[in-house]
## 1
Amino acid sequence: MWGFYIEQLIHSLPFFLKGLWMTIAVSGLSLLAGTAIGFIWGILRASRSRFVKPLIGAWVDIVRGTPFLVQVFIIFFLLPEFGIQLEAFPAAVIALTNLAACFICEIVAAGIQAVPSGQKEAATSTGLNGLQQLRYVILPQSMRIILPPLVGQFVLLIKDSSVVSAIGVMDVTRVGWLTVQRVPQGLLVFGLVAVLYFVICYPLIRVSNSLEKRMSAGVTQNKM
Amino acid sequence: MLETFNFRVIFEYLPLFWSCFLATLWLSAAGLLGALLVGTLACGLRISRFKLLAWAAGVYIESIRSTPLLVQLFFFYFGLPSIGIRMSEATTGILALTLNSGAYMAEIVRAGIQSISHGQVEAAVSSGLNYLQRMRHIILPQAIGVTLPPLLGQAIVLVKDSALLSLISLPELTRAGQIMTSERFMPAEGFLTSALFYLLIYYILKGLTHWSQKRLIYMQT
């Protein structure tokens, strides 16, 4: 009996790979855009601006305080009420980009704040302007702190992308859900889906761990 | 548009939202409790001397952390009946939440145990405390202080993760929004109300986290 189901699964493998491609497309696009926006928000959040800072903080809190599924539903169902009709794919990318930006913003802000203020003062007294300080003094040093959790966050976001299957994006989770209606062997079908996610996420987790080790080794060296 | 935002319907559905709010609370609480047990067990096995057990715990932790909760949930929801194990949606949901959070909890527990310096244990041994007394008076009081903030953080994650249980039609907060959407076609009212309830839980837990962090610093000085 199992042999028959395995054979059926092998036949629908192209379907799964298409789903995997969709997962990679949604999370890849969102991670790129989310990282860019997250860095901008993070830099603003670490700045002394009195207006933008609390605004970003409040938005980050709202996004971190609600489930991603609810955010996806709100974007998918609510934007049409403002006359913005969205397909499932762009709605998913917008939702995931926003989520990514909010989490990355916190990581970047924490990284910037961890750079000792003496560095900034020294940069100011050397005559560098704000942008130059950021580019040549602050960011290179904070990257050491930002990078390991950033890669870890990427893993969390790729996993979160499975949630967009709820609005009908044909990602690998959705493919599994459709296949299980036809091949009633949930362990096999979702075992395969899990393996496909594992193949992407596990190497990234290893990268994050080794980055953490290398970067922290660097920090202790600096202290000596 | 939003000027047609219908507060009357929200009031009409408020009892549903309230019962779903309570469901979200107890589902996440059950998940948290289960995760604490599973996490402690997994952590204990991971650092044990038996290679096979340590390896098994490692496989569990790594495979949970590398796959999405939604896939794990469907794995149990569609998979267990296919091998003859039938259980209610609520049990399946709590099982998935427990096993998922347990893998993250193992890390939190490990950090808590490792935060206690070896000198503390040695001092306790040399003052004649037995294992239980050491645990009760020396190790646990300190470990709990270190573990409480990340534990509350995990509680926040669990509450948000429990939203996925709506996809196996468990009546919780997100499901309430879906019900309102399908019965009245009012997604704005439905999901924004859900979001509001989630934010309520989030801000309470976040406040508790800050409080516990402050207390922790106070205890250390």
## 2
Amino acid sequence: MKQKTYKSGSAPETLFSSPHDKCAKMMRNLAILTVAAVVIALPFLLRRPVGQTDWRPGDPELVIISPHNEAIRFEFSRAFSLWHKSHYGQPVKIDWRAVGGASEISRYLNASFVAAARGWWTGRGNDWPAGAGDTVTHPRFDAQHPPRLASIEGETAADAERRIDREMARWEKLRDLYQQFRNTDDARQFSAQIDLLMGGGAYDHQKAFAEGLTVPPWPSGAPPAGLFTDAEGRELLPATRGGELWRSDTFFSTAISTFGICFNEDRLRDLGIETPPARWEDLADPRYARQLGVADPTKSGSIAKAFELIIHQQCYIAIRAAGFSDDDIEHNEVAIAQAALPPGVMPEGVPAAYQRALEDGWLAGIRLVQRIGANGRYFTDSASKVPIDVSAGEAAAGIAIDFYSRFQAQNALDENGRERMGFITPEGGSGASGDPISLLRGAPNREIAVRFIEFVLSEDGQKLWAYKPGTPGGPVKYALRRIPIRRTFFPSSDPVIQQQHEEHLRYAVDNLADPRIDPYTITQHFTYHPRWTAAFFSIHSDLIRAMCLNASTEMKRAWTAIIHCDNAERKRAALDIFTALPTQPEPVTWQSAPRIAHATDRLEYMRAWTLFYRASYARALAIIRAGEKMP
Amino acid sequence: MNCGLSRFIFWSVSLVFAACFLAPLGVVIQGGFFDGGRFTLRYLIGVFQNPIYSEGLFNSFKIATGTTALVTLIALPLAWLANRYDFPGKRWISGLVLIPMVLPPFVGAIGFQQVLGPYGGLNTLLGLGPVDWLGHMHYWGVVVLQALGLYPIMYLNASAALANIDPAMEEAAANLGCKGFTKFRRITLPLMTPGLFAGGTIVFIWSFTELGTPLILNFTQCASVQVFDALKEIGNNPFPYALVFVMLASSVLLYAAGKLTLGRNAYAMQSKAAVATATRYARGGRGLLVALPFPAIIFIAMTPHLGVIATSFATPGSWYQSVLPRHFTLSNYAEALGHEMTIGSIRNSLLYSSLAVLINTALGIAIAFVVVRSTLRGRGILDALAMLPLAVPGLVLAFGYLAISAHASNTDWVKNSDAWKNLLDVRTNPTLFLVIAYSMRRLPYMVRSAVAGLQQTSVTLEEAAANLGAGFITRLRRITLPLITANLIAGALLAFSFSMLEVSDSIMLAQRTDYYPITKAIYELFQLIGLGQYLASALGVWAMAFLAITIIGASLLLGKKLGALFRI
């Protein structure tokens, strides 16, 4: 066989292995084993001693589900255990449950509660009717009014009666289940085996509450003394601020986030943009085409909030442009709220022009978002990706949450220590949203959980967000760089608060006196009017999804053509079609939008909108192209 | 194989598969078929009525076709070269060829970005200015990147197939005057069909449902990304479940179609390759020519890996507008490997993955036996079903396991017993569910490898043993398994490597630090703002190094059979 005709030096090992080959082989095997040993040994060699804990089995435990990262979990675990020991004599171990981001947590909690309710309900001898899983946590189940049932065409009267009786019996079972579930908060009955939900946006916590998953830690109006107001009645944790809800009976914001624009200075220069963006409108500049990092509002409650604020600001601008002052707005909104008329109907004394300006502003807001979306390089599922990409120059600018950007900027310094990434909060364009904590129904360690809420909201807990590592009362390992919510951390004309603020300022990482950081100043320049945009929260996201994501290819093609078109007339005609709002299944306006948001067939709307936008973009492109072909 | 025994194996395997895979899948998928407790086909029909979803399915199909074609173009010549020639450095190179498939999750995207981004290494090296490579590649970008990540699967299967070919066949052909490409086309290629089919179907279904690459390149109009998008949505949306069902059904149909056209003509050889194929030693210029394709392909395919490695050694923020990071540091490693969750996560991952591979091997052999050696009626269905796990998005299966665990842990007998809690309640201990999840997700590799091995091995060898009085177990142990060891090891290596890198199940099922596998530890490090990508890269590189050593080490240290596989 050919195989055997090797020349010397390349003898096949199997037949003629010389001692030399054997030795080489052994050396090789040894080398492999050594490398393997080194790789495996590395983590052991680098292992740091685990922090000493005096927690022993039998001491209290607490279970928290949270999207917060390891740094936050580590610092709060350590500090709370110490705090608890000094106040109640025992250390506490926190068992953090991490199952992913806010949307995974929401799904997980819902499924856990349904499973717990099912075990409890069937364990007591009840059956589990079809659809019970959806009903238990349904945000809008009407337990007061039985459904109206009518006979179906072609059904005999007797059949119809039997069917309606059956349906009625099922509804009654569902109602009993629903009511008993929502009236029970006892770990011995049922429990998801989790005490607290911490982190995510206010939206996620409101949703959990609507699903019946969270309960008030204290009887309404009876929080521990000194927590919400001090002994002299100074408000330390306001319930609302600038129109934003910071706490309710069930959820309590522990930190504040604002939204803004992060940008890469080098990329801007390369694109020929001299001045960094300062307002949301700047992001609609065609020079940013395919350069913006944007997160998908249907996946992140906080990004959906950012988009809402962009639209909200356009409403404000339009109303001011129509000649109404801030006082007029205040006055009109109070009158409208008191009159409680159907949406869009103005009480006496409020000019129709006011409402018209609001509706025009809303439209302008949607169009602004559309143009920002058209400049988008992508719509990512994770809000933290945007500042990472911007700092790497992957995107020129993006919409981002403040603390992500501050962190990323700090970790992307150039040779001279210059931050190449900037971050601004557009003036009047961002409110201050809370990052809440809620107590879950049937919490197994309820008492400890309530203490934890108290701790996080107290001075001691709040220091962890803002202080430098190693400072007295601060974190020991990680700077968390989140903005606390407690009033005492920020400048005030009240000398008592101002004095506490100055004390905090000495140890804080960020300059808490900076008006762009201080949420109490930010909210002075920004008043959130829920009437303008709050009911549109989900519809904005769905519209953006249809407009910018589902029709993205067509959109980018049309947008590029429009940007590069020299003929003003055609450009305007194409833009008109490009920015038109869907007319199918019904025209989308400020008035119709909230109704659509509660439509049962949201997915059908999305489909119709997507088709609408694809067709519009194709038409806009055709208009520009038709011109190109002409001589 | 006797009928009673094959029936017993068939039913027990089906039962295990139904309980561990179909049940959790069904629990989730039913969300697309019920509306207020009532069965409905509205959503399923809606998938086809909605042009976005049909377009997404079509794009996924296009991606899969393109990727499979490109993978074959890359892997087949490499496997053939490695089978025919010896050349300098071959030992190392043929192990290295497999490394591109071990790209750790999350940080892979960072690797791409650092190399291909506007201010990345490539643009700086070529002095191109801020060209946005990743922003403008869509369909072709996805196909090329996927092919570069998936060709090792095809290479492994093709190599195993070539190793199994009895050189006597080709020698006989040569004696009859059939030479060169004709010999390859008429003799070699048909004989290796089972291996090609095995590799091809895995690559096809994988790329049909692959999520990561289209996400990195922002190619959102394909079915996998649409499912992911809808699953991550805040509101409840039944469409992803209906869409998953359609993806599953199309995968099975495509698989069946492939099997009818390609997989039917499997030629078993009278004798397995008792002697290794004659390899020619290529040296000098010829050796270089033969060897060159290997490092070239490996280097291109390792672009993201090299990006991750460089990131892991970079001082944060220092790799920017430069070919490589400007400042290097070891502190990322000190921090990531020294983190208190790291060692535990390594131990957990090894445990979960090894157990999963054991289960995989047993199930894979059993299924392959039924499929190849029995004449039972349902065997074709079992064969197709075993491919399903490839087509199920990880998130969907993870939701399913969570739901089952949540249901079980709320029964009284689990609530009141620590032992049961440890087994069935993922909140207490996720080991069982993670092992099941890993083994189910990676079952297709093992089944395909084992089936391919059995198909190429003539049943007459087992019959001869039976004639000499050997019982079933003896035959299995002394004849069949040794004959298909190469295939089994190929499958096990794939299953082990990918189990170590498994993402969705790990993130959702391992909820407590004590039970984190290494992928979740990487995820947790990645979440640390600012430093996250550097620490995650460091741990990712460790995982890569570990898997690389496992693969190369296995190819060098294990006995002759694996040697045959890698032509060493």
